[in-house]
Amino acid sequence: MSQILNLFPIPVLKGHIDPPEGLFEAIAEKLEDCHKGKWASETGKSTGELGMNLHQDVPEVSLLIDLMMDTVVEYWDNHLKYAPAQIEPMASWSNWHTYNDFTGEHSHSNGRLGCHIASVYYLQKDEGGDICLCDPLDYLRRLTPLHKDNGDAIISEPVPTRTGDFLLFPGWVRHRTNRATNKRQAISINFNGNLV
């Protein structure tokens, strides 16, 4: 009898929280002051243009984080198996995509200044335009006779989501989005842990 052993998986947690009351309106107000294509690798609007501290400026985002926190701690302790830590949000912003908008490939970690856990919460999400998590073994896989031609883009896996879904993944995982086929509003929250 044979068995496949997936020895080095990257745990990605997918959860769901119904949007807290007033969150959509609070973010929409912030986005009124933003412009398309003005921040980082975004083609849509992003509150990152104004700063990366929604968790401090918008009480409804702080409430969302409170609702997520038990799951973040469980992910840290039981899935990533990181050392005990006091986990805190360190940055948060929201991106608004309409037809054909996308987020370019990036990670939330550049070594010394990186985040430990990246998250994305879908305040509004229609079909399509999913996040794609990039395979960190891309360069090794290209040395093998792959069945599919992946072109120049880093090999990735799309993660289908809907309104109210959230994802947690290591901050060093590179990711991007497919082009939006409809409206998509996401809130990104980075968490770091101060080891205890």
Oligomerization category of the chains in this entry? single chain
Q: Roughly what fraction of the amino acids lie in strands?
A: 25-35%
What is the total number of structural domains? 1
Number of helices: 4
Shape: globular
Low-confidence stretches: none
Mean pLDDT: 91
Instruction: Give the second-level CATH assignment, the architecture.
Output: Sandwich
Could you describe the largest sheet, including whether it forms a barrel? 6 strands, antiparallel
- CATH class category: Mainly Beta
Distance between the termini: 45 Å
If you consult CATH, what is the topology?
A: Jelly Rolls
Helix-and-strand structural type: alpha+beta
* Tally of DSSP β-strands: 9
So, the CATH homologous superfamily? q2cbj1_9rhob like domain
Which range best describes the helical content: under 10%, 10-25%, 25-40%, 40-55%, 55-70% or over 70%? 10-25%
Strand order of the largest sheet: 1-7-4-9-3-2
